[in-house]
UniProtKB/TrEMBL annotation:
It comes from Mycolicibacterium chitae. InterPro entries: Beta-lactam/transpept-like, Glutaminase. This is Glutaminase. The keyword NADP does not apply. The keyword RNA-binding does not apply. The lineage of its organism: Bacteria, Bacillati, Actinomycetota, Actinomycetes, Mycobacteriales. It catalyses: L-glutamine + H2O = L-glutamate + NH4(+).
Length: 305
C-alpha cells in the first residue's frame, strides 16, 4: 500500500493549475458563468479519519450531473436492479448528456442513468407521491452520505435551470409518451433542477465518495445500500461518468468518477478513498480540465491498476 504524506496534494494542484487556462467555464446558466476559471480544489478522504485537502476549500458549488450517482443509488435501493434497468440502459453514451439521441436504438429507453434522459427516468422512480418529496428524500440521503446536515439546494441556480430547461422538457415529454415516466413532467423537471442545484464543497464529495468506496453493504440513515448496488454504480461511473470522453477516461485513469458542468467531480477509489474536486474550467467535452488532470495524477500516486 502506498504511504501517503499529508502534504501530498498541494504539489499536484500546483502542477495542474497552469492547464486551467486552456478551458472555459460553463455559460448556460448565469450562476455558472460567474465561476472563477482559475479555481481548483481537491479533497481526498482516506477513510482513516484523514481528509487531505488542497486549493480553495471554501468554494461551494452545485453538484449538477454528479447528483445522478446519488439518484441512481436511491433508485436501486428502493426499486431494485431489475426495475431500474428495465427502464434505463447500461451502455456507454454517445453524444452530449442532454442530446435527444441518447436512447437505445429503436426502444426509446435512455442509454444509461447518467445522460439527462436516463436521470429523469431515475428521478421518477424515487419514493414520494409528488416530485417535491423526492427532493427531500435526496437531501436527507446526501446529508447522511456526506455527514453534513447543512446540505441544501441553491434555489437561484435551480430556478435558472428551470427557466432554461427546454431540452430537458422535450426529453421529459418524450419519456412520458413512452410511459417511462409517470408523474407530471413540469413537477419532475422542477425536482430534477433542484437536485442538480444541491450545493456542496469538495470535502462533502470526498466523504460521499469514501462511503461508496466500501466493499460491504452500507448502512445510511435507516437505509441499507447493498454492496452489489454500490459496485454497480461504481462500474457505471467508470465507463459512462465523463460524458462522451468516458471511454478515454476509463482507460487513461481508471478511477470511477462522475463530473458535472459546474466543474464538480466525485471519484471513488474502491476500498481506499473518496475524492472530491472542484475545477470549473471545462474542456470541449464539458469535463473539468483540472479534475481530469488531478484524477490522472491521483491514479498514478495511488498506483491504480
Ligand atoms: N443541470 C444540468 C442539465 O441537466 C446538468 C448537466 C451536467 O452537469 O452534465 O442540463
Amino acid at each position: 500500500m502506498t504511504v501517503i504524506a499529508q502534504n501530498w496534494l498541494a504539489p499536484l494542484v500546483d502542477e495542474v493549475r497552469p492547464h486551467l487556462a486552456g478551458g472555459a467555464v460553463s455559460t448556460y446558466l448565469p450562476e455558472l458563468r460567474r465561476a472563477p476559471a482559475d479555481e481548483l480544489a481537491v479533497a481526498v478522504d482516506l477513510g482513516d479519519g484523514n481528509v487531505l485537502t488542497a486549493g480553495n476549500l471554501h468554494a461551494r458549488f452545485t453538484v449538477q450531473s454528479v447528483v445522478k450517482v446519488f439518484t441512481l443509488l436511491l433508485a436501486l435501493h428502493y426499486r431494485g436492479e431489475e426495475h431500474v434497468f428495465a427502464r434505463v440502459g447500461r451502455d456507454q453514451g454517445i453524444g452530449s448528456y442532454n442530446s435527444l439521441e441518447t436512447f437505445i436504438r429503436g426502444s426509446g429507453v435512455p442509454v444509461n442513468p447518467f445522460v439527462n434522459a436516463g436521470a429523469l427516468v431515475v428521478v421518477d422512480m424515487l419514493p414520494g407521491d409528488r416530485p417535491q418529496g423526492r427532493v427531500a428524500e435526496l437531501l436527507e440521503f446526501l446529508r447522511a452520505l456526506t455527514g453534513n446536515p447543512t446540505i441544501a439546494v441553491n434555489e437561484a441556480v435551480a430556478r435558472s435551470e428551470l427557466a432554461l430547461s427546454d431540452r430537458n422538457r422535450a426529453l421529459g415529454y418524450f419519456l412520458r409518451s413512452q410511459r417511462l415516466v409517470s408523474c407530471d413532467v413540469e413537477e419532475l423537471l422542477w425536482a430534477y433542477c433542484q437536485m442538480c442545484a444541491v450545493e456542496v464543497d469538495v470535502v462533502d464529495l470526498a466523504h460521499a465518495g469514501r462511503v461508496l468506496a466500501d466493499g460491504a453493504d452500507v448502512h445510511l440513515g435507516g437505509r441499507l445500500l447493498q454492496a452489489w448496488h454500490v459496485r454497480l454504480v461504481r462500474r457505471l461511473m467508470l465507463f459512462s461518468g465523463m460524458y462522451e470522453a468516458s471511454g478515454r477516461y476509463a482507460t487513461e485513469v481508471g478511477i470511477p468518477a462522475k463530473c458535472g458542468v459546474s466543474g464538480a467531480m466525485i471519484g471513488v477509489v474502491p476500498r481506499r478513498a473518496g475524492v472530491g474536486i472542484y475545477g470549473p474550467a471545462l474542456d470541449e467535452s464539458a469535463n473539468s480540465i483540472g479534475g481530469l488532470r488531478l484524477m490522472r495524477l491521483l491514479a498514478l500516486t495511488l498506483e491504480i491498476e
